[in-house]
Amino acid sequence: MRCIRTDTGCFFKKIEERLNSKTKVHTRKDVNEDFPLRGAVVCGRCDTWLTACWSKGRGTHYPYYLCRKRGCDSYGKSVRRDVIEGEFEALLHSLKPTPGLFTVARKMLENLWSHRLATSEARVKNLKTELAKTATPDQTISQPDFGHRD
């Protein structure tokens, strides 16, 4: 949708259209186990996302990541999958969380726990209220008769 921006009118129209339309979830078609870093690693020269492919050699296929941006010095040059994924693994091993990160994560989890607890307590209260409305004290719930005779 094209629109001319006048204050917040354009944004309002876009939001209204999004709210009134069906939600579409876009999934990547190129995600697979063979190349887990596809779409997550960029070319060191042009900052374009690397793609990945299998190249056929003499009798077998070899996995590679490569840059697909025309004009880049690395355009079409393949890097073996084990090299990139090995460097990525080394990077992950070198990362060390700070004590501040643990504090923030703990606070986030405590907030989430408190929110879920409050939500569940409110749900229990609402269900008890609904149950009280539907069942009067003189009504009893009897066991179903499955055709057994005494």
Write the layout of secondary structure elements.
Elements: H1 9-20, E1 51-56, E2 61-66, E3 78-80, H2 81-94, H3 99-134
Antiparallel strand pairs: 1-2, 2-3
Unreliable stretches (pLDDT < 50, length at least 5) are 1-6
The side-by-side strand order for the widest beta sheet comes to 1-2-3
Distance between the termini: 73 Å
Structural class by sheet pairing and helices: mainly alpha
Tally of contiguous helical segments? 3
> Total strand count, please?
3
User: What average pLDDT do the residues reach?
Assistant: 79
Strand content: 5-15%
Shape: elongated
Helix content: 40-55%
**Biggest β-sheet description:** 3 strands, antiparallel
What Rg is obtained from the alpha carbons, in whole angstroms?
Answer: 29 Å
SSE order, as H and E? HEEEHH
